[in-house]
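Sanity check

After download, print the first record. It should look like this:
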Amino acid sequence: MNILGIDLGSVQTCAILAQKSEEGLKIIGFGKSKSSGIKKGAITNIELASKSIEEAVADAQMMSGVHYDKVIVSISGAYAKSVDSIGVVNIPNQEIGIKEIHRAVSTAKHTANIPSGYEIIHVLPYNFKVNDLEHVEDPLGMSGNRLEVSTHIVISQEVHIKNLKKAVELADLRVDNIVLSGYASSIACFDDSEKELGAVLIDMGGAVCDMVIHAGNSVRYNECLQIGSVNITNDLSIALHTPPKEAEKLKLNYASLAQNENSLIQIPYMGDEKRKNEVSIEVISNVIYARIEETIIILAKMLSDNASANQAGAGIVLTGGMTKFAGLDKLASAYFDNKAVRIASAKKDTMDGFKEIFDDPENSCAIGLCLYGGGYFTPYELDSNEKLRYKGEPEIINKQIKQNFVIEEYEEKEEKLEEIFQDRQIFDEEKEEIKKVEVKKEKKPSSFSKIWNKIINQF
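Expected structure tokens:
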């Protein structure tokens, strides 16, 4: 089975093709394109966004040489909210199976206070209770007459989900699942000990910072800060009065937060690129440092105001393109109450593939999407299609996709057969006409035969 993960970001679109076999998952295709028609995680132009998807997917497919079986697409946390809900069901046969767990999780979904105009992306159970026994990790196979589940439900506005699906479908793809981008990144970056102790993941991207808190074997909290590396580019462009393209180059070339050089460099002037302006590297470094420091302070404030952050015993994991700034982890640890902070890219022990793809923190979300499609998710959850997902579930490729392909193929064949039958019918009719003409010709006597008959009759 080939899984296509599409991370539709505000700055770039990343597509990764992973192949799942008995040996495990392996990355076989990779593609990136500059994002267009997307701002702050929301689609502002469906046609431009679909072209970005199409370009990235085309590169991934060209590299792999195979087609996809499953498509998993990320949705930004900028327009996602969450609600918590509890579901309680009776167990008549006193034996808890998959059906009973499904009933309990579905009950939590139905009793949740979901605002009008919102759709469910994930229903994530984080705590089970069997009778009076609390903090049950996995109730499957246990005996009891009452099952209670506490869930964290991730929701997003219907219009954002519909626009996302339209953009993907316009690129000739069909969406199997939509996954919260921060959740996907956590799947790629967290190890087992961090999941067990609880940890915070912050995906610092181009336009937004997605945050999730993982505790109790599941996601307990998700939030988003609409600040990213694009803000640094804008700050440099405004402060130095240089074009945004040049500001982007400066950001990438002087990405170390520890730089404090007084040497001067020449940069083009905004509106007149032939005119040059001298700027010290120290000024560039100060502008970058100020924006990153502000971003970390806001993120630290968001965590301090949330009770779930106290359960993050393993500390804070940072990933995403913005983490490429050297010295970011030391700066972050000073503001996150001296909690353990590490810069992470996707783990290599869950998937094989190209080292360069794993080492780049920009690819964490796309790799996480492929892992999600391959079965690396929380022990139980209702996905964006409101279907129960669980460990060890049978592999199901989207039947609707296959059915549509079969129907389309059948209709094409049927049309071709109709054309052949019509051509055959026309041919048969023409053949009959020719025969009739030949028969008429045979019946009609020639002029020579007429004269010969007259001579014979005289004698």
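If your output differs, re-run the checksum step. Summary of this record's structure: The mean pLDDT is 86.
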